[in-house]
Amino acid sequence: MPLVGERVRLREVRPEDFPLLVSIRNDVDTQGWSRTLPPDYTLEMIEKRYGGRDFEYRRDSAMFMIETIDDDLTIGSISYTELVDRMEATIGIAVLSEHWGLGASGEACQLLLRFLFVELGLRVVRLWTQSGNVRAVRSAEKLGFTVAVRHREAIFKGGGYFDNLVMDLLREEWYALHPDLEDHLVDHFR
After folding, report:
1. Number of domains in the chain
2. CA 152 to CA 138: how far, in whole Å?
3. How many CB atoms are located within 10 Å of the residue 108 CB?
4. Of 77, 136, 153, 154, which cross-links 161 as Cys (Cβ 3.0–4.6 Å)?
5. Residue 63 forms beta bridges with which residues?
6. Which pairing describes strands 124-130 and 146-157: parallel, antiparallel, or unpaired?
7. What Cα–Cα distance (Å) separates residue 108 from each residue in 40, 57, 104?
8. How far apart, in whole angstroms, are the C-alpha atoms of residue 121 and residue 116?
């Protein structure tokens, strides 16, 4: 069942999404924090990674495609990994550059954060970015994330060094930004 917002929906990965995933993974601007540069992902690599996945009930990771509601256009992917039940997870998002700044990424993140905090009851959600990606840092801050760890000058990109950043968002911080929602687990964490 997809997670549905006003402008985007998060749905399962399908085989027809594989070429888009290759494109996103090979985009230096989208993947500029990666230590596996230069990007050299192939369709075969993506098919091997996602095509052979069997259905299972494991909740420690999931990937969703981001699709616009108005025109059913697939514009990127969003995922969570390293989930520890009732504790933490790390999220990641990659959106085609022509859709940056239009609000779709922020809404996709909000949908995933709501799922992680409300449905899975997580305590903290983290993400990785780098200081040179000012757009990503600002977007994360708008969602409520703050810099928790800074690895100074750990990324070399475009002829310069940038800090690798771990940003996080605590459960109570997320709920404070959403006063219309009630945290039914608040007493369990005290």
Report:
1. 1
2. 18
3. 27
4. 153
5. 79
6. unpaired
7. 27, 23, 6
8. 6
Q: Report how far residue 128's alpha carbon sits from residue 130's, in angstroms, rounded to the nearest whole number.
A: 7
CATH number at residue 12: 3.40.630.30
- H, E, C per residue of the chain: CCEECCCEEEECCCHHHHHHHHHHHCCCCCCCCCCCCCCCCCHHHHHHHHHCCCCCCCCCCEEEEEEECCCCCEEEEEEEEEEECCCEEEEEEEECHHHCCCCHHHHHHHHHHHHHHHHCCCCEEEEEEECCCHHHHHHHHHHCCEEEEEEEEEEEECCEEEEEEEEEEEHHHHHHCCCCCCCCCHHHHC
pTM for this prediction: 0.88
Confidence of residue 153 (pLDDT cuts 50, 70, 90): very high
Interacting residues of 113 by C-beta distance below 8 A, sequence separation 6+: 91, 125, 143, 169, 174
**pLDDT per residue over 17-46, tens digit each?**
999 998 888 877 766 555 555 667 788 888
State the residue range of the domain holding 64: 3-189
Strands 88-95 and 160-170: unpaired
Mean pLDDT of 121-132: 94
The strand pair at 3-4 and 62-68 is best described as unpaired
